[in-house]
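Hi there, hope your week has been kind to you so far. Thanks so much in advance, here it is.
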Amino acid sequence: MSDGAATPSPRLDGKVALVTGASRGIGRAIAQRLAAAGATVVVTARSQGSPAPQQRFGKTEHVAGTLDETVALIVKAGGTAISLPADLEDANALAMLVPRAIEIAGRLDILVNNAGFADYARVEDMPADTFGRTVLHYIQVPFALAQASVPAMRASGAGWIVNIGSVTALSPIRPYPDYARAGGDTVYAATKAALNRFSQGLAAELLDANIAVNVVAPSTAIRTPGASALIPEDYPTEDVAYLAETVLAMCHLPASERTGQIAYSMHWPATHALAVKTLDGRETMPAAIPPAWSHPAIDTAVTQ
């Protein structure tokens, strides 16, 4: 880990970012932090004025959080945000999302693929629809939005794509702990592992175009309205501000200096002496300390 002075947060003035799944949780936090750094943030999700119904765990549920709330938080903090509702499971809405974002914001510099669908089940019990939706959200959607974003980024001479990953992409610890033997996250984890490899390959393809592609994942777990049901009540989760700051760190340097990274929210700031700010950018958080219970393979998985 670095012993030097903390690295100051970058500015994104004049940049436009598109953040998916921004009605709550991690997506909302990322949108707030990018806006606090000066970016105009286009926030998208299905829930605009009220929470949209979703099918999960075999039932219909409404999870708190809307785009209107996210925009209000950003504006209150002095930032700029534009709401652009879209259902990424709708092929037409997915195809039109990037063109519409560019139309309303004038350009696109940053794409954050955060939106997700987590419906855990053991492989032997998982419905085909759940499998298909998981693959769609974590492979097909990032592919489609990255593909649609590249021409605009090429035209402006630079761009940044950040895919939100997961520590579950790493192999289960041996001997297998009880939660791994109980199962449920295998398909989700497999798509996140594929997302890592997709991101690193895309980083190589786009290096000469000065378009950086990186992955940012929680070092352990972040309690959000959508993920809370999947996290034991007594599990020590981490503050989302560390992940949001790590995303910001992936959105300003030339691709020649930072691309193809798999960065973890507590490990990256600690390793790079990164000053972590609150989501509004006004206060400094305590220095990041990677949790002792985080996956032991993270240190070797983080590329330098």
Observations:
- The chain has a mean pLDDT of 91.
